[in-house]
Amino acid sequence: MGHKATIRPSTAFLTVDPGKAGRQVGFLMIPHSPHDDAWGVTRVPVAVIANGTGPTVILEGGNHGDEYEGPIAIGELIRELDPAEVQGRLILMPANNVHAVIAGTRTSPVDGLNFNRTFPGDPRGTITQQITAYISDHLYPMADAFLDLHSGGSSLDILPSAIIEPTEDAGLRRRNIAAVQAFDAPMTVVISNLGESRTATAAACQAGLVTVGTEMGGGGTVSLDALDVCRRGVRNVLVHLGVLDEKHKGPKRGDGKILELPGSKAYVFATMDGIFEPFHGNGAAVSEGQPAGRIHCTWDATREPETVHYQTDGILYGRRQPGRVRPGNCCLVIAREYEGPIA
Ligand code: CA
Predict the structure, then answer these.
(1) What pLDDT, on the 0 to 100 scale, is given for residue 1?
(2) pLDDT score at 255
(3) Three-state SS for 227?
(4) Phi and psi at residue 59, in whole multiples of 5°?
């Protein structure tokens, strides 16, 4: 268990009792008072499935509202798991950034915020900040482990992978790596988000939770392969944590190799306004200095395309989905062999 966060006063409340055994399906209610609803609430779906003794695991989907495999897999668990199959407690949250999930957008249409840049939230802040504050203050302290199921979203197509959130705590790092490898995705990747501390997974590590992330496909669609990887991976991790019985475990398929995004060199950013033409597909082996693609200004034929280059050796891990780019857009992401500490 992590250290208890200071409990800040909040008006949010749950319609389920996390202390009760069995299956309950309800909501985290955030009082929300816009023009057309003076005393209404924002309803964030939450289910609790608890039985016997064992760890408490939070499963998060819909952190970004345009990433679909995780929310589908969590919804299935809510409907299909028999509480008698569980040892411990699952807190299942398929659509945490609920207004973004309903809109099918990355960020919340209510306050414009990226949920995954708001931890530890603010119970007196905007709706997004209030949701993340409730998770930080009330749910993380109940939990032993956290699964945050992302995909690439509308703008990125990413190779299906399980993600390790880096931590300075060697014991937690060891447990995180073991849990992420138990997910058994085709790839395992360490992603630091350049040291970003306001993400759900960084905050979960800060709270001492065993933390597992994913990047399941993307491009704003549902990938058949990634959905299969996600369904099996979630159950594999729950078996690893002792919440589900071995019979839920899928056949081994990952090679156990760990990759990482090597800091800022991982990214190829657009250098001009235009249309990005990639030179390689996801999974291609690439090298530092090699031309990665070029940007065309199709509305001005007098302008030469601008070529952009890879800044590191590695494999092409993700690629921008829309062709249209503006300066600073992330066009390509490279992963390479992980060289950091394992334990
Ligand atoms: Ca995401």
Answers:
(1) 46
(2) 83
(3) helix
(4) -110, 120
Which residues, in sequence order, are CB contacts of 255 under 8 Å at separation 6+? none
Residues with CB under 5 A from ligand 1 (ion): 64, 150
Same domain, 331 and 192: no
For 332, the domain range is 263-337
Query: Quick one: pLDDT band at residue 247, thresholds 50, 70, 90?
Result: very high
Taking 60 as the threshold, does the pLDDT of residue 325 lie above it?
yes
CA of 100 to the centre of ligand 1 (A): 12
* pLDDT band per the 50, 70, 90 thresholds, residue 256: confident
> How far does residue 153's CA lie from ligand 1's centre (Å)?
6
Cα-to-centroid distance, 20 and ligand 1 (Å): 32
E strand or H helix at 129, and its extent?
helix 127-134
Q: Which of 229, 230, 250, 226 is nearest to 239 (CA)?
A: 250
**How many Å lie between the centroid of ligand 1 and the Cα of residue 213?**
10
- Predicted TM-score (pTM) of the model is 0.96
The alpha carbon of 67 and the centre of ligand 1 are apart by a number of angstroms equal to 7
Q: What is the CATH number of the domain that holds 38?
A: 3.40.630.10
Rounded distance from Cα 72 to ligand 1 centre (Å): 15
Residues 114 and 255 in one domain: yes
**Closest C-alpha among 174, 10, 201 to residue 96:** 201
Residue 7 lies inside a defined structural domain of this protein: no
The predicted structure's pLDDT at residue 4? 53
190 found inside a domain: yes
Same domain for 332 and 195 = no
